[in-house]
Amino acid sequence: MTEVQTQANDSTIPAWDDAELSGLHENDEKAVKVQAMFNAIARSYDLNNRVHSMWRDVAWRKFAVKKARVQPGDRVLDVACGTGDLTQAFGRGSRAESIIGLDYTEGMLEIAEHKRGKLMGELSGRISYEQGDAMDLRFEDESFDVVSIAFGIRNVQEPSKAIQEFYRVLKPGGRLVILEFDQPSNPMVRWFNGFYCGKVMPRTATWIARDTSGAYKYLPRSVTSFMTRDEMKSCLEGAGFAQIGVQGLSLGICACYDCVKPHAE
Questions:
Q1: N or C end of the chain: which has fewer CB within 10 A?
Q2: End-to-end distance of the chain based on CA atoms, in angstroms?
Q3: What is the pLDDT of residues 71-96, one digit of tens each?
């Protein structure tokens, strides 16, 4: 087992050091480091999400479900599902036949399964979880009506490769919805958000999580160094998606992208 593989399974070993954060999206070991990071913070992840978004993350996920326009009988794939919040939101907010939550990190899936066990029968029965890689989905072509990913695309080693996989597994006419943090266009909001996410949140979230992985240094840096809206739209277009839209939420702190896999001409 390599040092970095050991790191992914040992939450006491830091996933990120300060020197690595300057080029985190180009780091060849990004995927394994992200896996180690999320294993380390899994148990406090939901609490930190609620506290540091001021509970807005719940509204963002409800918005994503609405944008997905799920129809009765649809099959939904929620990629990078984490602890299953969006997966469950699809279950509660739609009549989808099945919702599969897929994540790269075992520790997050353990929490998701624990939460599923508390759901009532019919809802629990429509939801399932499994471990997998967004860049190499095990599913057959044209298997799903909806694919979603919330706050996970920037954590993928090669986002464009994952988006190509989303296109492959969607049926013609299927919808892709992406939630991701964004940079507000208003200068004052952008300054406040940068101060809060760059200075306040890393300290308080690290304290809540008792984290030694560097997760809450990585997370804000991964947002500011990720694709712009125009770059994301170009990536979606390059994969073949059409009717690409983006809407800013909470003064532009979060962006919701939605698009469609067109029918063959």
A1: C
A2: 49
A3: 999 999 999 999 999 999 999 999 99
